[in-house]
Amino acid sequence: MVTIRDVAREAGVSVATVSRIINKKGEASPETIDRVNNVIKKLNYKPNSIAKSLSKRNSDLIALLVPTISNPFFPELVKEIEAAANEKGYNLYLCNSDDERAKVKYYLDSMVDHYVCGAIINSLHVNAEDLAMLEERGIKTITIDRANFEHPFSAVTVDHKQGAKLAVQHLIEDQGCANILFISGPKDEQSAKDRLSGFEQAVSESSHRIQTDTVYGDFGMESGYQAVKSKLEAGGRFDSIFSSNDAMAIGAIRACSEFGRNVPQDVKVVGYDNIGFSSYMLPSLSTIDQRKDEIGRIAVDELLRLIQNKDLEPQKYNLEPRLLIRNSSQ
Ligand code: RIB
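Structure tokens for the assembled complex are given below, as produced in the milestone run.
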């Protein structure tokens, strides 16, 4: 492998001169710059980005910590963030925590070891002290999606409470539903708690008498299927389902179908996330769009804003969710 020393020797200059010319820093005569650049081309020298990170104690890496990659919402979000980062000349250091505190801790330490320049964090297991530790080491942070607006750092998410309200108001006011089964995400999950609160507020604010029931899932398809299957086995007579995410809604629709409850004729269903599958389902799934592309762009732009000017104040972004009405609730 060609090193910076080979280039310096061939060009008859010091390693420091080659480094200055590559990083466009400091003085060098036009002749020297031309001679070094010609040698770089002749030897096909590629600067070693790890070595550069070590010397600068910083890199072009942005860490992205997500709770899982098995739920389709997250890979779709990762794709948007990767595109936004690459567009600005940065690469992603993807950290999949499997929602386990031990793995979160491992990756937080690994971010420091890899000199990442910023960290985008999507996890209920990361607290304000963790973020402060990264910030103290010069790693700017932003939390997304499962963001916590109480801590002093930047955050961007769709307003999950408002998203739930839009879904439930659609079922009640547009479709005349009067008996709603709510499938919540995990009890301790902030985004699930916000959706539960939005569901309860929409029902209490309605002028109609609405019967409700709540079951809990883990954001996976199987949990949505089992939750609705058990309700149907117990004779549940709900005329609609609002699910905290699309994956559980897909499981719920399967359970309805196995019990001869037709969607949307017998049971209207609305999910949350607008994952790619949702529009291809039969019936196509009504859902709340989480504006993944905008969250990705804002997360990267906010990090770079803070990296380029360390004295700037962190910002919070609470985006308006969008209701997408499709066949499953019409
Ligand atoms: O589907 C996974 C859920 O977890 C999404 O709704 C997302 O908001 C995350 O909180």
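DSSP finds twelve helices and twelve strands in the chain. Residues 292-308 form the longest helix (17 residues). Further analysis is deferred to the final report.
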